[in-house]
Write a sequence for this structure.
């Protein structure tokens, strides 16, 4: 590729970097960060300020819990509210016990007379063979039967559809109850007619009477849906919402007393009454307190992120991701109360999932503080549920521990076991302390087991989504690149074998240096494999590949040499994007030389053209290392390169590494890397020690042929 194209490509890279810097400015915006914090406080605070959306508030302690606080004395009189579940049952009972309402049909008798008259005329004409006496008996029997049915009550509704034992009749003057067994519907009327007259009349005559009279007979009591619904509403409204009252000054719970269901009912009623009173008296102040509660708890995480840890690597996207986890944990805690299930669904809150996710995406300390914050918040949202908070905290900690040295996705089974242990211990021991029944304990453990099994699966699903939709790359993705058979590495081994061996040496040095200062060993090793892949384009211009050939830089100008050397960074980044390497590794390709100066070619240019040469033309494009891992690879890359110089002694090698690192420090290459001088000293020590071990000379052992020894005699 011509040099001109290289320069154009470099200019294009500068444009890309400028755009990247603009985006980075938004990512570090303090204003945006403040907005994220405020939104988090407002959203989480709403779960405190509007905890149950109309459902009854409830305490999170269970029956058998020992009240260790001071005696609870009622500051005001309040009713003992019936629990929502019991009240709902009473409402359903009131509905099912409300009888249907029927109104008299005043036209039924006249219609029956007309029907009977028509039947007599038609039947007489069709049965002329019957005597007048037989016809009179038949017609009188039918008339008496109709009178009997109307007297008892003939309704227009199937008796099978009425679940109550009685029905209500509203005659306009009064309402009275009638037993369901007394009244008749059409089916019952036909059956009674068959039973009463089957011995008197033939089957044909019975059939004619039923089809022409009874089936056409109008009910004398008609169902009224409006009055029935009104009666149901009256009965439901009469269901009591309380079953007693506690007077001001009464002791609700004594210190050391075991809580019974009655105590819990009083305590829930007291909390609800406090909520209702606060809404009337000091609602605004209480809401401010709720949001302040969230802010105080959130301070645990904020102080760690921005005052204790390395906040330089935390952009606003990552920070918003952490705050989203806080919001979702609070939402799940609110839902566990608002849904009001009889089973302890609160143990389905995905704190272990969020803890594992944070440990893999960020680091273990961040995950630790996040877990503490989330556990305290869900405890607060659930009315100071201490037991659940401790359970979630321990399960979250063990979830973090289970991925501390994650190697592959098969570690899911270890995570499941540790998370379940984190739930098991608090549930069992707190249950024993409170005298909790075996059945309830087993139910809680089953739900916790579901959470334990689901958390790792959900975690890896979330990680996959985040990796595919953002520039965040986890160690799981890096682990998959820890393969020397990767197409890029295979190509480098083929086209630039010297660079390939150099990269392996840098990988070994950087991994051991990372171990010495507590940096990411896996990332250092894998990133080192790929840091020089750009040399594939023109391998012959790099010293490690110039085996038995003339140095091609002797044939071109220092400026051309500088451009070619710089372009290995640019081309390497392009190859990384082409082969879909993670952004973290592409960043290392850019950063492994930082903005350092190519001293050799700069010196040649000064020697040839004098001091008019621009130093910037002989600098790498950068940027400078922005992490400890990038700083480690920069040092190890330079150290491994000088270790290949000829005619060096042990002291020379050590001094040269010191000199190179000192120059990098003077150039400010580590200003953004958050690395200390003591850590740099450890890296130099590890690097020197390992390079010396790699370059030591073997002892030349003597052989028998070189000695005048009689082998027949023992030594």
């Amino acid at each position: 590729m011509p040099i001109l194209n290289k320069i154009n490509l470099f200019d294009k890279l500068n444009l890309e970097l400028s755009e990247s810097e603009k985006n980075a400015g938004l990512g570090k915006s303090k204003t945006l960060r403040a907005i994220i914090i405020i939104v988090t406080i407002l959203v989480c605070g709403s779960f405190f300020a509007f905890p149950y959306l109309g459902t009854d508030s409830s305490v999170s302690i269970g029956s058998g819990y020992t009240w260790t606080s001071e005696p609870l004395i009622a500051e005001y009189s309040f009713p003992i509210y019936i629990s929502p579940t019991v009240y709902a049952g009473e409402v359903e009972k009131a509905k099912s016990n409300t009888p249907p309402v029927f109104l008299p049909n005043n036209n039924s008798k006249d219609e029956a007379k007309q029907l009977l008259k028509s039947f007599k005329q038609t039947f007489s004409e069709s049965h002329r063979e019957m005597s007048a006496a037989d016809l009179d008996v038949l017609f009188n029997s039918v008339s008496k039967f109709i009178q009997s049915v109307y007297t008892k009550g003939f309704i227009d509704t199937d008796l099978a559809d009425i679940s109550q034992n009685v029905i209500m009749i509203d005659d306009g003057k009064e309402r009275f109850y009638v037993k369901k067994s007394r009244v008749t519907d059409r089916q019952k009327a036909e059956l009674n007619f068959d039973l009463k007259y089957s011995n008197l009349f033939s089957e044909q005559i019975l059939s004619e009477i039923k089809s022409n009279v009874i089936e056409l007979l109008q009910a004398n009591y008609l169902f009224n849906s409006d009055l029935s619904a009104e009666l149901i509403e009256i009965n439901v409204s009469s269901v009591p919402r309380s079953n007693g009252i506690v007077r001001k000054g009464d002791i609700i719970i004594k210190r050391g007393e075991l809580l019974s269901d009655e105590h819990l009912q009083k305590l829930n009623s007291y909390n609800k009454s406090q909520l209702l009173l606060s809404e009337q008296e000091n609602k605004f102040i209480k809401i401010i307190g709720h949001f302040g509660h969230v802010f105080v708890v959130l301070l645990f995480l904020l102080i760690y992120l921005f005052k204790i840890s390395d906040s330089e690597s935390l952009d606003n996207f990552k920070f918003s991701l952490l705050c989203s986890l806080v919001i979702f944990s609070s939402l799940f805690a609110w839902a566990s109360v608002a849904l009001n299930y009889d089973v302890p669904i609160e143990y389905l809150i995905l704190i272990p999932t969020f803890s594992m996710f944070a440990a893999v995406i960020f680091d273990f300390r961040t995950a630790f503080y996040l877990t503490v914050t989330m556990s305290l918040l869900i405890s607060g949202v659930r009315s100071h549920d201490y037991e659940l908070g401790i359970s979630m905290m321990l399960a979250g900690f063990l979830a973090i521990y289970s991925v501390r040295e994650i190697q592959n996705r098969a570690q899911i089974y270890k995570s499941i076991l540790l998370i379940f242990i984190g739930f098991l211990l608090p549930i069992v021991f707190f249950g024993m302390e409170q005298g909790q029944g075996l059945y309830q304990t087993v139910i809680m453990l089953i739900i916790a087991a579901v959470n334990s099994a689901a958390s790792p699966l959900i975690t890896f699903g979330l990680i996959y989504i985040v990796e595919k939709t953002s520039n965040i790359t986890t160690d799981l993705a890096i682990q998959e690149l820890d393969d020397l058979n990767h197409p890029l590495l295979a190509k480098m081994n083929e086209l630039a074998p010297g660079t390939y061996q150099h990269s392996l040496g840098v990988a070994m040095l950087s991994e051991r240096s990372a171990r010495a200062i507590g940096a990411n060993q896996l990332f250092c090793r894998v990133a080192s494999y790929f840091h020089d892949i750009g040399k594939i384009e023109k391998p012959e211009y790099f010293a490690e590949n110039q085996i038995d050939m003339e140095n091609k830089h002797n044939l071109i100008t220092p400026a051309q040499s500088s451009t070619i050397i710089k372009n290995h960074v640019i081309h390497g980044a392009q190859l990384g994007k082409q082969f879909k390497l993670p952004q973290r590794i592409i960043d290392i390709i850019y950063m492994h030389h930082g903005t350092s100066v190519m001293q050799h070619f700069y010196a040649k240019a000064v020697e040839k053209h004098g001091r008019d040469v621009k130093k910037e033309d002989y600098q790498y494009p950068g940027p400078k290392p922005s992490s400890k891992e990038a700083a480690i690879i920069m040092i190890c890359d330079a150290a491994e390169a000088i270790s290949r110089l000829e005619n060096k002694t042990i002291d020379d090698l050590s001094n040269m590494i010191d000199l190179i690192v000192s120059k990098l420090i003077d150039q400010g290459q580590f200003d953004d890397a958050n690395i200390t001088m003591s850590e740099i000293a450890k890296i130099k020590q590890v690097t020197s020690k390992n390079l010396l071990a790699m370059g030591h000379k073997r002892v030349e052992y003597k052989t028998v042929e070189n000695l005048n020894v009689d082998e027949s005699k023992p030594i």
Remarks:
- Residues 438-469 form the longest helix (32 residues).
